[in-house]
Each structure stands twice: as C-alpha cells, then as structure tokens.
Here is the input.
Amino acid sequence: MAEIVEEQATKQSLPGETKPPTTADLANAMFVLVSGQRMSREEFVSRLESMIYQECEVSQELGLRQGFAIAEALAKLKNRKPPHKAIRKIMRILENNPEATTRKIFLALDDADIPLYKSKSVPKHARQWSDVVKEPYYKNLVSRLRKQAARAARLRGLQIGMKLREMGDGVYHRTLV
Here is the structure.
C-alpha cells in the first residue's frame, strides 16, 4: 500500500520534478485512494495521524536546533570586547541605515568629531575619516561591520519572534495543505 501512496503522490507533483513528495502530497494521495476505495478509512486515519506525529517530531527537533543556534550567536555577540568609539558609531549608523555608503558613514564620523582610527596602511596626510574613504583597509572595515550589523539585526528579530511565541500559547501551528 505504501508503494501505491508514493506512486499516487508522485503523479500529483509537477511533471519533470525529481523532488520527493511532501507530506501534503502524501496526504492528498491517500485521500484520492480513500475516495477511490483502494484504502480503508481506518488505514487512512491511522497513516495520517502517524504522518502528523512525525511532522511534529521533525518540527520540534528543527526548532530546538534553531533555538540553540540563536542562543550561541547571542552569547557570542555579548562576549565581544568593547569596540573603539568609531566602530560603535559606525555600527549605530548601520543599524539605522543598513544601505549607508562608506562616504556617508565617514562624513557622519567627521561631523561627530571622532578621531581617525589609524591603521598601518593610512597615508600620512590623512587626518579625517573623509580622507580615507577609498582606502581598502577602511572599505573592508565597513564591510565587516555591515555584516556584523546585519547579523545582530537578524538575531534581534529572531529573539523578538521567540518572545512573541512565548507570550502566545507557545505552540507553533502548521497546516498540511
């Protein structure tokens, strides 16, 4: 009977697809077999209940893994060393405007009178942030900070989503179809 269900589910998927049938495809295939009286209703109910139970187990495991990954990432964010004043300002700018250009960021640093964070590759004449906009070291610095800001924003969003679920009934519902 399992082979017939798989065959029916595969027929219902789009032509040319090589993906295995989803749970919804299998449930629809079983429903077709019941309506065609090739499967008893008791067997249909039994198989459907076992599929739902398996889906719940998989969802719970995925949720636990995702929660663990979020907790690890949040702990990693909290354990970083305190950043330089300029880096804190760049992060705040990127949190408010993730699309800000390097030039806009450095002009904001100049306006805030934050001294230039010097590296070994800085030209001797450079005194302000706007003087080093095209320097590779500073472009890479902004790129790294942009990725960190995006990651921190994503983690905060996941954290807020988890809190909202906790405030609700605590159960994540998923439909089959």
